[in-house]
Amino acid sequence: MMQQETWLPVCALAMLLPAQGRSARVGEQQLALFLLGERVYALDDRDPVSGIALLSRGIVGDLGGEPVVASPLYKQRYALMDGRCLDDPALGVRAWPTRLEGETIWVKLS
By residue range, what is the domain housing residue 68? Predict the structure, then answer.
């Protein structure tokens, strides 16, 4: 049986600061949210190297035009678009689709 994908409200857009991460829990999922320009990105907050939920505290930047977050512990950089690690292809985090409805951020969890 195919699992249905569900859009869930996470928080108000006003809760995010530009180019800074914010942690949010949606059900059992711990997310790291990032606002860059008018786009909101959502990644798993758990750093795959340390196992600690702290990517939301990482340094947000740009690598060759691609928005990234660097883990605050070991400095691996993860693409905000798809969660792949730019420093080690064996690593990565899940990226979640987002959308805005009015001033509310929604994330599609499956």
Answer: 20-104
